[in-house]
């Protein structure tokens, strides 16, 4: 074994053909199927020791005292640290620096890190942790989001994190037909399979090298350096293999902890969470309570929408502010409505901290507004798709924020596509394994009813509200063994989505070369921005395209012609190297006006629609999703196979929220931190999917792309719940729908 | 405790193994074979699936000592040199690999299925893989991969 295994140690190369619009092999595919791709939890160093985290058992408590004496005495223990050992600022956070690296005086959620241990063996570290004596004075937890604003303040500024109002048109509008509803969305977990892990290696210059699974290397570095009290150039991050992310790696987990232990012990420190710790170790999707009122005329044309949306941010802010803004600005869905009154609030509580998860604020709102559209359709006696078509926004529509939708918004077409797909055969014609309850053999069709439901959703793509959202790419071209070979370097995190493949495709298309090596992603190059908001193909893709254009300009100057199609690049280059770095920024956005919510806050909108077909065993309350079809506009499919993979995977996460996934809390305590009790869809839960991909180019985006990753997660959930309602006639105002919601017991 | 085990055809020995250690820990941390994954370490996800005497098991549920004197085959032992096993090849081609953290376990489970059933039906594939969680793909392309591998074997 080599003395150190640190993620990608060499460049990734693979197929030598496949530009944009094709689906070449992933450059990391062979390593992954061979079990040789180094994920963060696979990192290894011959001198390494193991780090572990002692966490608070209480959702809210004062720390009276911490006694480390017994823990330090355990043979094999190298270090035991508390907040007193944090040399820099003991606070971090994406939007507000409100979260301690290690708790200081008070704990605000169950699972909050209190102390760290480094030891020779992970079990030694665990045993030592149990000998750290922490005396707590338990405090009353704040757990109800709707009353949290008036509860005892958990942070100096009070419990209201952000309020975003959106006001458009006549605030006193009335309508002939009115439907109201109160909806709830449970707390969903990203449940990425690769647990939080990393390896921190102390460096000779007094700094530290951190190999880690994350979504955003540069913002991690900034936060780590501040906590360590070091200049940023002393903290170097390299991306290791990432086992999925979905928003859950946008905040720090073990990054600062491993670095603190490494610097203290002078040894490389590996930290790996187990599944239970992972549930405590990252933020979740905000649970929400949503009150809606829709008014329409008798033809179904919406007159007004009013909404009050409460999002539970939990103990620390994370990205709650941006989630609130999304819920507010996208809160009425992809519909044209002249009169809008929306208020969204994000609040601190003593529940687990919530932040980014795929769909980011748009998921919660969509469950409510789509449920309302179905209610309204029923009230008017209209088909649910017909009602949506009568109100669907299109290119040229104006958002409730006043923003013009200035590229394709094929909401009606997406709905028609899923509506017109052939329906699956009736239940009973199917294998037992396709029945609700499956091989548990709970029914052979008795008590089983079928339902069909529809939904459509909207998502902002890229970062909004004036954020300087950019990415950096470096492309280098030289001749190796007589052939021109390109290298592409970015800090944009590959988390599974296939960015590495798309970067190769762009370089092949732009430079006409066959071989493209992807260099390890790290902080030796400029910021790549976050792998979130469905933005990497758009923004990092744009940066790679721009770097290629700069390389091509240099080649054109060398060749004395703009047209390189006839030029032999190997001959032209000889032993010269062309090396260019470029940044790409999408068009600027504006802040949201604080009182009216008006402003051109978003870069681009993405849309997807779903049709779900379900069978429900009404006696046991079991649901089998028989079929889930999706139509989505992606602007341009740079890699059609990866696009469909995103749509299928995103739809599966929406299915999970619809019928099974929830972190259940009571009094702020997590009751199900395991895959035994927090269920995610399996092969038996996911039905076959028909996917229609539209490619209506956005003229503002590189190659016309439109972000792909999030929209399918948004409409999947309400479509499935609509189908269960259609089957059962029940109101079902909360997700996930549990068997007892169906049986009423 | 000392554990002697044949892994991917090679005799391996580990000393000072603590009795609470799993076969998964032994493979990953002592024998330098991190291919089998650690997504839950509770027997719920299948990411750690390896063959133990030709039977697929969750390595996280097997004590390291139980593997003493036995044969283990991991995902690292499926390819022959540069030549991928047909199941591995199909996973890459079909787009069944995104983050890939589920992949080693799924590849072993699919390999075992195709050893037992040459041309499995869709319900048979779904049932055989139901113990292997994947969070990225929605499974559709994993099914495609198994069908493709079955056609080619
Ligand atoms: S790690 Fe063994 S089943 Fe999940
Ligand atoms: S590919 Fe990521 S968990 Fe399956």
UniProtKB/TrEMBL annotation, chain A:
Under Gene Ontology molecular function, one entry of this record is: oxidoreductase activity
Q: InterPro entries in the record, alphabetically?
A: Ald_Oxase/Xan_DH_a/b, Ald_Oxase/Xan_DH_a/b_sf, Ald_Oxase/xanthine_DH-like, AldOxase/xan_DH_MoCoBD1, AldOxase/xan_DH_MoCoBD2, AldOxase/xan_DH_Mopterin-bd_sf
In this protein, which residues make up the domain named Aldehyde oxidase/xanthine dehydrogenase a/b hammerhead?
34-140
Enumerate the Pfam families for this protein.
Ald_Xan_dh_C (PF01315), MoCoBD_1 (PF02738), MoCoBD_2 (PF20256)
Q: What domain of life does the UniProt record list for this protein's source?
A: Bacteria
UniProt cross-references to PANTHER family, sorted A to Z: XANTHINE DEHYDROGENASE, XANTHINE DEHYDROGENASE SUBUNIT D-RELATED
Q: What protein am I looking at?
A: Carbon-monoxide dehydrogenase large subunit
Automatic annotation (TrEMBL), chain B:
Which UniProt keywords are listed?
2Fe-2S, Iron, Iron-sulfur, Metal-binding, Oxidoreductase
Q: Which Gene3D superfamilies match?
A: 3.10.20.30, [2Fe-2S]-binding domain
**Entry annotated with the keyword Iron:** yes
Q: Which InterPro entries match?
A: 2Fe-2S-bd, 2Fe-2S-bd_dom_sf, 2Fe-2S_ferredoxin-like_sf, 2Fe-2S_ferredoxin-type, 2Fe2S_fd_BS, Beta-grasp_dom_sf, Diverse_Oxidoreductases
Kindly give the Pfam families that the UniProt entry links to this protein. Answer: Fer2 (PF00111), Fer2_2 (PF01799)
Chain coiled-coil ranges: none
Which GO molecular function annotation, any one, does this entry have?
Answer: metal ion binding
Residue stretches making up the 2Fe-2S ferredoxin-type domain? 1-78
Task: List the PANTHER family.
Answer: OXIDOREDUCTASE WITH IRON-SULFUR SUBUNIT, XANTHINE DEHYDROGENASE IRON-SULFUR-BINDING SUBUNIT XDHC-RELATED
The protein in question is named: Carbon-monoxide dehydrogenase small subunit
Taxonomy of the source species: Bacteria, Bacillati, Actinomycetota, Actinomycetes, Pseudonocardiales
């Amino acid at each position: 074994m080599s003395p150190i295994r640190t993620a990608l140690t060499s460049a990734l190369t693979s197929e030598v053909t496949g530009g944009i619009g094709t689906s070449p092999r992933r450059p990391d595919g062979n390593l992954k199927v061979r079990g040789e791709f180094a994920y963060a939890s696979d990192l290894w160093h011959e001198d390494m020791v193991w780090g572990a985290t002692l966490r608070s058992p209480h959702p809210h408590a004062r720390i009276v005292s911490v006694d480390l004496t017994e823990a330090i005495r355990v043979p094999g223990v190298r270090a035991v640290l508390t907040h007193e050992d944090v040399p820099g600022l003991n606070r971090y956070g994406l939007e507000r620096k409100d979260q301690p690296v290690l708790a200081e005086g008070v704990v605000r959620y169950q699972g909050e890190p209190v102390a760290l241990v480094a030891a020779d063996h992970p079990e030694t570290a665990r045993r030592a942790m149990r000998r750290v004596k922490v005396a707590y004075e338990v405090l009353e937890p704040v757990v109800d989001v709707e009353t949290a604003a008036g509860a005892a303040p958990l942070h100096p500024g009070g419990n209201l994190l952000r309020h975003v109002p959106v006001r458009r048109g006549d605030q006193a509008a009335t309508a002939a037909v009115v439907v109201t509803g109160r909806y709830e969305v449970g707390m969903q977990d990203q449940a990425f399979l690769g647990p939080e892990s990393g390896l921190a290696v102390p460096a000779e210059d007094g700094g530290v090298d951190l190999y880690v699974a994350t979504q955003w290397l540069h913002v991690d570095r900034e936060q780590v350096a501040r906590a360590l009290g070091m200049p940023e150039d002393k903290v170097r991050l390299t991306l290791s293999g990432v086992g999925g992310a979905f928003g859950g790696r946008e905040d720090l987990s073990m990054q600062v902890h491993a670095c603190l232990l490494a610097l203290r012990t002078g040894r490389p420190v590996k930290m790996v969470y187990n599944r239970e710790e992972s549930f405590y170790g990252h933020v979740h999707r905000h649970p929400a309570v949503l009150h809606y009122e829709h008014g329409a005329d008798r033809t179904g044309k919406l007159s007004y929408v009013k909404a009050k949306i409460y999002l539970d941010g939990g103990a620390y802010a994370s990205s709650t502010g941006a989630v609130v803004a999304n819920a507010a600005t996208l809160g009425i869905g992809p519909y044209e409505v002249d009169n809008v009154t929306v208020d969204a609030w994000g609040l601190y509580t003593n529940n687990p901290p919530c932040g980014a998860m795929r769909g980011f604020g748009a998921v919660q709102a969509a469950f409510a507004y789509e449920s309302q559209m179905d209610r309204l359709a029923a009230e008017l006696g209209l088909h649910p798709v017909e009602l949506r078509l009568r109100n669907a926004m299109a290119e040229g529509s104006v958002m409730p924020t006043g923003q013009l939708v200035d590229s394709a918004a094929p909401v009606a077409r997406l709905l028609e596509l899923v509506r017109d797909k052939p329906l699956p055969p009736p239940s009973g014609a199917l294998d037992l394994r396709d029945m609700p309850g499956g091989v548990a053999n709970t029914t052979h069709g008795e008590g089983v009813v079928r339902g069909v439901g529809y939904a459509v959703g909207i998502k902002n793509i890229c970062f909004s509200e004036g954020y300087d959202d950019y990415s950096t790419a470096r492309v280098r071209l030289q001749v190796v063994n007589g052939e021109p070979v390109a290298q592409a370097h970015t800090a944009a995190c590959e988390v599974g989505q296939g960015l590495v493949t798309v970067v190769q495709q762009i370089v092949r298309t732009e430079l006409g070369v066959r071989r493209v090596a992807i260099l390890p992603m790290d902080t030796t190059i400029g910021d790549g921005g976050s792998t979130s908001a469905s933005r990497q193909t758009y923004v990092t893709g744009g940066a790679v395209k721009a770097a290629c254009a700069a390389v091509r300009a240099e080649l054109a100057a060398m060749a004395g012609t703009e047209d390189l199609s006839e030029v032999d690049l190997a001959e032209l280059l000889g032993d010269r190297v062309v090396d260019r770095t470029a940044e790409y920024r999408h068009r600027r956005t504006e802040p949201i006006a604080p009182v009216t919510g008006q402003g051109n806050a978003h870069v681009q909108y993405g849309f997807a629609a779903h049709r779900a077909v379900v069978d429900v065993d009404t006696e046991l309350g079991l649901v089998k999703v028989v079929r889930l079809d999706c139509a989505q506009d992606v602007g341009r499919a740079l890699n059609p196979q990866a696009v469909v993979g995103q749509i299928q995977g995103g739809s599966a996460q929406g299915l999970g929220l619809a019928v099974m996934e929830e972190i259940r809390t009571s009094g702020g305590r997590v009751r199900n931190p395991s895959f035994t009790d927090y269920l995610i869809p399996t092969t038996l839960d996911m039905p076959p999917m028909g996917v229609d991909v539209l490619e209506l180019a956005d003229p503002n985006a590189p190659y016309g792309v439109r972000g792909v990753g999030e929209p399918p997660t948004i409409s999947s959930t309400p479509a499935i719940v609509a189908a269960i309602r259609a089957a059962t006639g029940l109101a079902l105002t909360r997700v996930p729908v549990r068997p007892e919601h169906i049986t009423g017991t | 405790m000392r554990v002697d085990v044949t892994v991917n055809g090679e005799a391996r020995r580990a000393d000072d193994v603590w009795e609470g250690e799993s076969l998964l820990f032994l493979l990953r941390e002592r024998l330098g074979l991190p291919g089998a994954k650690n997504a839950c370490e509770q027997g719920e996800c299948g990411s750690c699936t390896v063959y133990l005497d030709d039977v697929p098991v969750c390595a996280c549920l097997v004590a390291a000592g139980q593997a003493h004197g036995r044969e283990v085959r991991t995902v690292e032992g499926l390819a022959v040199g540069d030549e991928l096993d047909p199941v591995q090849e199909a996973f890459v081609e079909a787009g069944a690999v995104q983050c890939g953290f589920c992949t080693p376990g799924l590849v072993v489970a699919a390999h075992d299925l195709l050893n037992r059933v040459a041309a499995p039906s869709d319900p048979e594939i779904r049932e055989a893989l139901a113990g292997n969680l994947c969070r990225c793909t929605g499974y559709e392309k994993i099914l495609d991969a198994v069908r493709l591998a079955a056609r080619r074997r």
